[in-house]
């Protein structure tokens, strides 16, 4: 979620954010299985081994994406001028164990397109 829930992202930002996220996941030897986003938050489905700490992965995803997006899209500055941060400090992570990927993908896709 973006800082103060500002509607920050347009399509171009989300496309770049997806690539940045894929790069960070690759560095952690994890796989970004699904990505979807709205103007003020993103949904990620990441396949990763138990040796990876979720908090470290999330902190890296937020830190790297914030630095790169602010560098590549200076116009985003108007959204984070008060706190000099793009992302909120909070996040939600859940384990999906044996749930079929098709069900998870459908859930993520529907977050941006309510029925």
TrEMBL record:
Gene3D superfamilies: Transposase IS200-like. Signal peptide: none annotated. One of its GO terms (molecular function) is transposase activity. InterPro entries: Transposase_17, Transposase_17_sf. Transmembrane segments: none annotated. SUPFAM superfamilies: Transposase IS200-like. It comes from the Bacteria. Residues 1-111 form the Transposase IS200-like domain. This is Putative transposase. It comes from Planomonospora venezuelensis. The lineage of its organism: Bacteria, Bacillati, Actinomycetota, Actinomycetes, Streptosporangiales.
């Amino acid at each position: 979620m973006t800082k103060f829930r500002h509607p920050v992202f347009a399509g171009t930002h989300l496309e770049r954010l997806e690539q940045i996220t894929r790069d960070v996941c690759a560095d952690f030897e994890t796989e970004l299985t699904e990505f979807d986003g709205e103007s003020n938050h993103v949904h990620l489905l990441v396949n990763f081994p138990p040796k990876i700490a979720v908090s470290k992965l999330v902190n890296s995803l937020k830190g790297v994406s914030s630095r790169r997006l602010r560098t590549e899209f200076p116009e985003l500055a108007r959204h984070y001028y008060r706190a000099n941060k793009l992302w909120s400090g909070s996040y939600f992570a859940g384990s999906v164990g044996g749930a079929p990927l098709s069900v998870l993908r459908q859930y993520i896709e529907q977050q941006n397109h309510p029925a």
